[in-house]
Each structure stands twice: as C-alpha cells, then as structure tokens.
Amino acid sequence: MDSLTNPNQLVQTFCVLDDLSVELFGKTNKGRPNSLSRSEVATIILMKHAFGINCLKKLYRLLKTNYSHEFHLPVYKNFVVTMNRYSLDFLVLINVLLQLQQKRSGVMKIIDSTPVPVCKNYRIYRHKTMKRISTRSKSTTGWFYGLKLHILTDLKRNILMMKFTTANIDDRKVLDIFLNQLKNSIILADAGYISAKLQQKAAKGRNVILTSIRKNMKKLATPLQIFLLNMRGRIESVFSVLKERLGLISSLPRSENGYLAHYSRVLFGYLFQPLIS
Prior knowledge:
By secondary structure, the protein is an alpha/beta fold. The protein contains 10 helices and 6 strands. It has helices at residues 7-25, 38-50, 56-66, 76-85, 87-104, 171-178, 196-204, 223-229, 233-245, 256-276; strands at 108-117, 135-139, 142-154, 159-166, 186-189, 208-211. Strands 1, 2, 3, 4, 5 and 6 form a 6-stranded mixed β-sheet that branches. 31% of the residues are buried. The mean pLDDT is 89. This is Transposase DDE domain-containing protein. Residues 108-245 form the Transposase DDE domain. It comes from Candidatus Campbellbacteria bacterium CG22_combo_CG10-13_8_21_14_all_43_18. Pfam families: DDE_Tnp_1_3.
C-alpha cells in the first residue's frame, strides 16, 4: 500500500479502478456530475489506508495540501457527503471480489467473529447514533456495545465471506447462513460453533466443521486435528489489520449511514490492497 504515495502508482491505481467502475456500473451522464467520481473516491480510500490516516478531516487536509492538482476537491462538508454517497457502490465491488476469491480458495477455511463497538462503555447511555441496530454483548475481552463482524477466510488470510450482525447474535446462526454457499470444505472454528445440527447440514454439502473442544467435553483430538485447529490464529491477524491498521473501530461518524460507509471503506481497502500492491 505504501506504493500509493508514489504519484505514478497513484495514476495507475486510478486507471485500474476506473476501468473496473465502468465495467460494473457503466458510464453515468445523468444529472449534475459530482466533483469527485466513483473511481477518484475509491483511489482516495486506498490512499487513506496507505498514509495511515484514521479520519476524513486529516485525509481532506492531506489532499488539499499535496494533491489539489490531482483531485478537484469540494468543501469539506460536501467531501464527506460524497465519500459516504458511494458506500453502496463499494459494497458491490466488495461482493465481486469476494466471489472471485471464493472460486480461488482451497479446501481449508477459517470462521470467527469479532466485536465492533461503536462507543466506549461509559458512553453507552448517551450514544444515540447507532442505537437502532446496536446491542450489548460480552466477548472474550469483556462487555461492549455495537455490532459483530463475522468473516470466513482461507489459510492465506483472504476474506471469502463476511456479515455484520447485532452484537447479541449467536455465531452459529451466521455459520448456518454461510453453509448455504459452501461445498467440499473443511471449516476450522472455535468451541462457540459446536452444534450437531450444523454438523448434519455441513455433511449434506460435503463440508466438515472442525471445532476446538470445550473443557467439559470428554473427547480427545487427534494430532492432525490439533495441528489444523492451531491455524485458527491466522484469522486473528485479519481482525488485527482491520482494527489496528485500517481503523475499523471508530466513534467519529455522526450518522448511521456514516458508520456503515466507514465500515465499507475499511473492508474495501483491505480487499483491494493486493490488487494494487
């Protein structure tokens, strides 16, 4: 991603994204054109992650100072509106790439979820922005208020499936949905995914769910199972990149759409990073 700080690489990235945009959405000439096109916004998102910027205001200052000739920037308020406006289009791009990575994935897959708090715990009773869809729940690190992100990856840390849910949703319900699209796979999961019904459903699609063993279970794991289950840690590195490097967890958005647009920008940056590196 550091290559995006190079002007030549910046132009090449824009061309790739512009060709992809035209292929998926076509050329739109209706109405008054936006000051920033879909391809420019996509390039700006990748630049945001390349420079390690965690908020739109700092990003706007960088573009205004160093890239005023490359981008025709509106005032800051309209810049934020434009960045959020294309969030649904980015979901289409994300879905296309997920489908491509599913076709290229191997047999081994890893599933897990991570909490996505929308505010700190002491601000829960004052938080109103995400009140409609946020709930309280408890993770391995304690109580939180917000959403939960479920992802399915391969051993190369490529995201194959993802889903946002409220925080109090059982992880097994999401795996049940994912199984509708999975075939001939070995799915590595933690003990929270133990379910006889899911095992039966997985067998119908020639899938195998391999979970870790709870302390109160009288069952022994073979050395091969232990070796495979130890690979589950790879998905934690995906969560680490999304949260620590790309800033998935944030309380800066001031609207529900702003939060969802922020999450789509982060996931877009993670998924499209290998294409322009």
